[in-house]
Structures are given as C-alpha cells and as structure tokens.
Amino acid sequence: MATISIQHMDKIYDNNVQAVFDFNLDVKDGELIVLVGPSGCGKSTTLRMVAGLEDISAGKLLLDGKDITQTPAKDRDMAMVFQSYALYGHMTIYENMAFSLTLRKENPNVIHKKVLAAAEVLGLTSQLNKKPAQLSGGQRQRVAMGRSIVRNPKVFLFDEPLSNLDAKLRGATRREILLLHKRLQATMLYVTHDQTEALTLADRIVCMSMGHVQQVGTPLELYDAPANVFVASFIGLPPMNFYDVRVNGDTLTGKGFQVGLTPQEKATLRAYAGKEIILGVRPENIVLGPDVKVTVNTNENLGMNTLVHGYVAGTKERMTAKLKGWSSNKAGDTVSFSFKRKHFFDKETTNAIKEVE
Amino acid sequence: MNGDDREIRLDRMRYIKNTSSANLTYLGILFDVFFFVNIYRSDVDTYYYNILIGISIVYNLVFLLAAFLASEGAKNYKSGYTWLLGGLGIGQIIRIFIIPMRAHSAMTLVNGVETLVMQNGQFFRVIAYLVISGACLLVAAAINYRKCHELSGHLKSLGLQGA
C-alpha cells in the first residue's frame, strides 16, 4: 500500500479557467480520504489529476515519496472506479475482471487465482459467468471494484461510484466499500457529493468549494467544528440554520429573537462584543425552550424524529428544527425553541470563531 | 505443468469459453467459403448444370448453418456438438471426391475442342481448401471432446453438475 502527498496542486485549463487552487494533502498509508463538495467544486478534477487522466498544471504529486507528477496514468499503479462502471457488455464478469491483467500478459493461472479471490471478497463468485446486463447496479459496481482489486494497485480511486444506484442499494454498497477498505487496508481516495457517504466512509474528509479546499479533518471534526460557513452548511442534514446576530454582552440579538450566552461562549466572542457575527445552529441542536418563537410552516414526521420548518416569529428568518419523537404541530402554530449548541462565524471572513484558550 | 497448475487450468474452463474449438470452426467455415467461391469458376460449357449443383448449394447452406451452430455449442463446452463437428469435418473430406475429383477428370467440348473441365491449379487449390476446412473441424471436434471430458470430470470432483 502507499502514501500520497499532493503539494500545491493547481489545475488550469487551456481556456484559462482554473478548476483547482493550491490543493495540499498528505494521505497516510491505508487511509480512506473522501473529497466532498458540490458539483463543479473541482473534486473529480483533483482525483483525475491524481489518476493521471488530467495534466497537473502546477504543483507536485508524490506516491510513496516518489514524484509521479509527469508519470503516465498506466504507470502510476492506481486503479480507478468510475460512476458509470465502464464494464464491457460483451464480456462475462470473469472476463471483465481479468481484462486488465490479460492486457498485461499475466500468467492465466495467476489471473484466475486473483479473479476468484476478488470475486470471493465481493460476493460475486456465483455471477462470474454472467454478462454485466444481467446484474443489478450494485453488482455491476462491485464488478468495477473487483476489476480494480485484481490489479492489486497501490491506491484505489473512486469517482462517485454510488451515484447511479438507488437509495437502498447505495446504502448497501457503501457498507460493502467500508468492509472492503477494512479488509484490504488500502489507501483510497473517494469522491462524492453526498455528505452521508463522506461522513460514513471517511477516515478524513476534504471539503471543497469552487476549487479551494475548505477544510480537512475527520468526519466528527467537520461536523462538530466546521471551519467556515460553507463547511457548516454542507455537512449535516438537514443543513445548519444561519442568522445574523449582534453580540450584546451576555446575549446574542437576532431578528426576532434574543438568546443568552454561556460563560464559555462569551469568552469565545470576547473580541466580537458589539459586533455582528453569524450564528449557526444545527437542527438537531434545537430543543423546545423559551428563547425563540417560531411560526410553524411545515411539519415532517420521520418516525423517530420530526422536522419542524418555520420562520422566526414576525420575520422571514427560516428555521428548521429536528425534534425527537412524533410531533403534531400544524402550519401556523407557534412553537418556542432554545439552542443547545451554537456555532459562531465571522461575518466578514465567514470563518469559524475559535474558542480562546 | 504441475498438479496445481493443471487444477487451475481445469478450473479456468468454468469461466473461460472454449475459444480454440470455436475459432477453428470459424476457420473451417472460412475455408469452405473459399472452396465454394472457387469451385464453379471452371464451369466450361455448362458442365456443372446438373443435379449436383443444386445439392452442392443446399449442402453448403446446411454446412454453414450447422458449423456456426457447432461453433457456438463448442464454445460453451457442449459435448454433443463434438459429433456434429466431426461429421462436418469428415463431410468436407468426402466432398473432395464428389465435384472436384469428377470435374478434374472430366472433359467437355468447347467449340469442337476437348477441354479439361478443371485444370490442375484450380483442382489442387480447392482440394487444399476442403482439406484445411475439414482438418480444422476435426481438430475442433477433438479439442472439444477433450475439454468437455476434462471439464465434466472437474465439475464432478467439485460436486457440481457435469458439463
């Protein structure tokens, strides 16, 4: 297995459009890194540069300490799994999985052993004589993964591999990828726009927006301590609520509400006294309480939880709260909430306001 | 090849098609086509205009169909197609003695001059086509027989149904 070091990597296309800006990342041996971000943020471009499918405009790419920036894709010893599976329809699953090794003129008996081993890992043994069209989407994606596994590459690259699957299959295949990673202990780079995939799969997440890395950290770090408003809004479902508020001594005053600050929060915001900041509150950190009156707009009962959507009373400030249990609020009802946990962001930079030690 | 390699080679047959038999059969078909487009080139004074030409054309169509069917069967290790391939191979050899041999020894009058229906050059060429075609089919049959036998034994040893 392998380590990857990406240093100051840029991607500038011929038409001078820059897709990736100063990308830096050190991937440890056996780590599963997920690149997450909205469409067009440069995550797939980054992956394709690592794979060698796109030229690197500036910067360096090191694999196990060796500079492979100019190395052709075929010599990088990396295997890529695409969203579209890219299987050969006229070949059987066995032939698809064996294809890359056949091209390399490996011993057929060695190929056979590798294909059977990969099929066993992926639960495809009984499907080896079938054609891709006879398999479900999830099985096809497993074949695509199997094709990568037989090569025994140093690094696995996944480009939105689950996007073509329905929700149920996506969940099942996601768990399979996780098990596969645990079993192979392989270094993996995984691109997705789905934050659930990112949070459940990643050892570390790289959150990107408009070609820039916004934050690198563990899933918990990104969820619990987002570096800026973008990360805070992108990670977490439903997304975080944001409000412009003013720091007034022991309280935060927003449009239509006022909430108190704990001593620790007050210490964090010491430098912002009298200034406007952005207050972020996750829906799951909102509980029934006396601080903020909300006029209910819609109520989504999900069984275990209820999503209450509404507006801060008398304003157009939206609020979504995730309450435990079944709630029977109706549109027009007024509910009162308190914030269990708050996130603070600088209004100018949109960066998180860090706690002062 | 040690025992382990042989075992893997046999196991590979569960997933790899019998392309050698199938490809030899395609080759047999190809040489049959060469034979067929060459045989009537020597028609002199409508020598071939008898019942043989009809039978020959019909047989050739049947041959093409059967050989293609057999190639698909052999590709999937169907042992029954061994006999069809063998029969078609032998049929190609027998065909040598029907039109080519007869045409080669026959004379016909062209403008009052006795002329050989099939010259030596053409005769040896069509004979070669038929021999190659027949040989390909017979070898394909032999390979298919051996492979089907081996695969069937291997599947039985694995406790799976025979081929």
Q: Can you give a write-up of this model?
A:
The complex is a heterodimer of chains A (357) and B (163). With 357 residues, chain A is an alpha+beta fold. Helix content of chain A is 26%, strand content 34%. Chain B has helices spanning 3-12, 19-39, 51-75, 80-96, 99-105, 120-157, and strands at residues 107-110, 113-116. In chain B, strands 1-2 form a two-stranded antiparallel sheet. In chain B, strand 1 and strand 2 form a beta hairpin. Chain B is elongated. Classes of the chains: A alpha+beta (357), B mainly alpha (163). The A-B interface holds A 92, 94-95, 108-109, 112-113, 115-116, 128-129 and B 5, 8-9, 11-12, 14-16.
Strand-helix topology:
The complex is a heterodimer of chains A (357) and B (163).
Chain A: E1 4-12, E2 18-27, E3 32-36, H1 43-51, E4 58-63, E5 66-67, E6 78-81, H2 93-103, H3 108-122, H4 137-150, E7 155-159, H5 167-184, E8 187-192, H6 195-201, E9 204-209, E10 212-217, H7 219-224, H8 229-234, E11 241-248, E12 251-254, E13 257-260, H9 263-268, E14 276-281, E15 286-301, E16 305-312, E17 318-324, E18 334-339, E19 343-346
Parallel strand pairs in A: 3-8, 3-9, 6-7, 7-8
Antiparallel strand pairs in A: 1-2, 1-4, 4-5, 9-10, 11-12, 11-14, 12-13, 14-19, 15-16, 15-18, 16-17
Chain B: H1 3-12, H2 19-39, H3 51-75, H4 80-96, H5 99-105, E1 107-110, E2 113-116, H6 120-157
Antiparallel strand pairs in B: 1-2
Helix pairs in contact in B: 2-3, 2-6, 3-4, 4-6
